[in-house]
Structure formats: C-alpha cells, structure tokens
Amino acid sequence: MELRAEGGCGLVIAPGAMAWASSTGYGLSVSIAEDDAIPHMREVARRIRRHGACAALQIGARGTRTEGGAESIAPSAMRFGYEARIPRALSVEEIEGFVRDFGQAARRAREAGFDAVLLHACTGKLLSMFMSPYSNRRTDCYGGTTENRMRFVLDALAAMKRDAGSDFPVMVRMSVDERLGERGVQAEEGVRMAAMLDVAGADGIQVMSGTQERIWNTSCGYFYPDAYAGDLNRPVRNAVNCAVIAAGKLGNPDVAEAVLERGDADFISLGRPLLVDPFWPKKVREGHSGEIRRCTGCLNCFTFASRQDIEPRGVSCTVNPGVLREPEFDALSPALRRKRILVAGGGLAGMEAAAVLAARGHDVELHEAAEELGGQWVIASHAPYRKEYRHLVPWLERRMRMSGVRVFLNSSVDADRLLRIAPEYVVLAIGAKPRELPFPASRPEVVQGCDVIMDRARAGQRVVVVGGRYVGMEAALKLAETGRHVSIIDAGEIARDTNPRLNGVYRDRLVELGVYMYPNTPLLGFTGNGVDAAHIGSLLHLPCDTVVLAIGTVSVQAPELEAAAARCGAGCQLVGDCRKVGDALYALREGAELGRRI
Description:
There is one protein chain. By secondary structure, this protein is α/β, with parallel strands linked by helices. Helix content is about 30%, strand content about 20%. The chain is built from 20 helices and 25 strands. The protein has an eight-stranded parallel β-sheet with strand order 2-1-3-6-7-8-9-10. It has a five-stranded parallel β-sheet with strand order 13-12-11-14-25, sandwiched between helices. A five-stranded parallel β-sheet has the order 16-23-17-18-19. α3 packs parallel to α6 and α17 (about 470-480) packs parallel to α18 (about 500-510).
C-alpha cells in the first residue's frame, strides 16, 4: 500500500476489511469489527498518507466461499456452482444487525485516519448476492423487486453515512452487469441500481462486472480485451451525479487515458497493474510508460493458497517476485566479490538471474541455444489471446541490457566449451522438455502439443489430445477452430490444477466448438486407427488420425555440465525447470532469489 502511494497514486484503497468477525473465514482477510482494530488500521492509513496520497479502506462481508469453519450465509438457501455447501439464509434480524456493523466499521475507518471508505457490493460477495435476482430468492422486504433487493446495501450505506459522518466519503463498488444474462443483474437494471445509490448519498460508484458463479468474469485474465467493462461506464456516468470510477484491465496508459478523455469516468482504478509495478502512475506522469513492468493477465496472483512453499504467505505475482517483501527485495546489495558468471539458458529463470547478478556487479554472460530468448514462455505467448504475455521477454531483455549482461543466441554450452570459458560460477537454467509416452506408436501419428501451438506440426481431421491442462486445452482449441473433430482425454480431471479464473473460459470455448472431453480416462494404448482408453469402467476406443501429447514436461538433465563446472573449480546452481518443473511464477522467483544469493 505504501509503495503505491509513493509510486504516484492519488488514492490508495486498502482491501478486504470485513465488517463483522464471523465474515472473515477466508484467506488473509482482516476484520474491522472491533475497536481494537483501529490502532493497526491507523498505521496503514498513516503510511499511505505520508507519501501524499489519500487513503481509503474497502469494507465488505463474505457470504459464501468461507474457510476455517466459518458459516456460509446468503440471502437464500440455494446451491451454487462453485461449492456444494448450501448456505444458510439470513433472517431479517441478522440483516438489521449487519447493517449496524457496516455503520460501525465506517466509523472505525474514519477514526483510524482514512479519508474515505469503499463499500464492497460486487462480484458475488454478500451485499451483491442480495442485489442479484440469481442469488436472492426471498419473498420478504429484502427480495423480489429491484428496490427490495437493494434494501440491504442502501441501509448499509445510510448506516455508514450516519455513524462516520455525512461529510465522510462512502463509495460503492458494484457489479453493474453480472454477465449471467437474464438470470442475474443486467446492465439496464445495474444502471438503475447505481442511480439509487447516488440518490442515497454515495460519493462514488466503482463500475465492476461479473460474479463468482463465473469467477473468470470478475478478475479477467488474458482472454479479455483492455477496458473489458468499458461499455458500462458511460451509462452509469449518464445516470449519476457522483464520481464514476472505471476499472478492469486499464493497465495500458493509453487505454486508461482514453476513458478519461471520452468523459466515461472521473477516475481510473488499477489493481493488478500496481501489484506488478507500484510506480505505474509516476512512470506515466514522467513520460516513461515504456519502463512499466506490465501485468501479463496470468492471474497467478490468485493462486497463493495453493503455493504453500512460498514465503511470505499471501498474494504473489509472476512478474514481480518482490511482492510482500518490498522494499528490501528491491534494494540490491552489491556483490562482495565480482565473479565471472556463465548462465546457460535464456528462459525466464535464466534471464532474471542474469539481470540481477549483473546489477549487483558480477560479470555475466548468458548463452541461449535457440535463436530467441524466452524458452517455454515463447510457446506460452503464442496464442492470440495471450498478447499480454509478449511484454515480458522484452522487459527482461531490457533489464539484462541495462545491467550489462552479454547475451549470446544460437549458442549451446557443452562441457568442452564450459571448460574453455572457465567461469567462476555457472547457473544452469536449461529448462524442461515435453514428456514422452512410455510406449511406442507407429499409427496414428503422434505429435507434441507445443508443436501444434507453435504451428510446427500438422494434424489430421480426427484428433485425440492426451492431457487436459493448459497445453492440451490450447492445442484442442486451436485444432477445433479449424473444423477438426477433437477429443481430450485425461487420467484425472480436465483442467486439473489450473487456475479457476481461467479454466472456465477454456471449458466454455471447448464446449462451444464441440470438443469431446473425457475426464478420468487414462490412455491404455494405440491401435492402427486410434487410441484405447479406460472410461467409466470399460474400454473406450476413439478413432483418430493424430494423437497430440500434452502430458507435461520433464527437467532437462545435464550432469556433464555440472561435472565440467566442478573440474574448473566453479560453483554451480540449477534454477527453474531444470531443477524442478514449475510455472513462470516459480521460474522468475527462483531466478530473482538466486541472483541475490551469489
């Protein structure tokens, strides 16, 4: 929060304070339900404001998707798509009590020194569940008509104004369109809801869209265009007198500026772009937009709960490995002794390590066997909807150039060459290679999924993709879009261990294109005209012309390079996929940490 203020934000909104203690049973949310929270929150506000920014506190309440034994609550007792647990419907008395809690939470925020609060009423959390006809099936004064479904949030707004003071700004973050079609709040009704909040005294409306039933619509990743919610800003602007705050993939400064120039909104809100680069506003203001570290839209920032090995615990970022350990992580200590260091491999881990090592004063040269840098990231960046990925390699190249790394392309390093160079330290970042099947096949033709994605392999008309994670799904999409008959089989679930904020989009597109998906279906072998697999307790035969393998990668082993390093007395460290196969977040993080150790 403090770095964002230092980086030039006018208003920094501290996220995730819950209005009552029982609503905090999820992740790292904090509570402002008691007065003893005020001293801690006062320090948050102070550290934001000391850099000249205003400080606001987002206040909300979770209903469902709770953890740690916290009860799941909602307007109505109904089954949702994202969890099997049916929440308990709140009573009128409980709702009235929660309204009072919101008022007191706003009062505490003001006493803690915040300049404003933002009421969270969007994306399927408790208040927005009451606002939505999809999740609110009540027949009392809190359900049915738009006015009734708005009652909870309007009462909460009134309580916050009453308890914190009528002169204390209260903004509302709301889903103007839930992207559920006729089932939920649509734009026309959402604009009317915004107008109701304006009349009730809201000082600003942050325009959001989506709901957690389709969570990929709430924090949109690489599938979505810039300013994906932009069509909602102007209708809200025309309907309200209070400030309108635009949000949703506005990390491109030109796109953000265009929203303001058109008069669609009064303020630009940035979330993930500031996680990646908290100095985004300052760089734009000073004319250095080209130096911004750009968000890739990978949404790994939402995967911290599954990364128990990462410290400190909490939100993490693929592109910015220093998140939650700044500013000490960004303050590079000079090397105690300058060493000649050879980095073998120009993927993400190798480039990051090289840039950091050179910035600390080491003499670094990087050798990449291919004709371009990036390694596996080149494949990951190839799909047309992953255009944001293509900013990362040029960013890392620029960092290496600025720090003085000497880069050699089409340059393989074998044991003899390593001995001739005779470095004092060797960093092996030689990556991973596609996993092969344990049994051979002559027919049908077998190709690798990465080769399909990169247009290095052609497939027949009938295709079976073996493996249903990212590479498998992307290869299947690419082939199905050309009219091929495509099936995906996986020994586990389709899209297992992938990001739920992305895999729903893949699934929906695969369904639209008519791709056949067979989860829990291990491959048994090949026949002359297809593959055999085990499915629902019996043998399944799928005829095909081509089998596409997407069954993961294995580390590239180079014991001869490790031995050569030892022979010339050099230290040697493996980093990235050649040490342990992971994703880009781990690769960059390992490179950054190694660069700080040597």
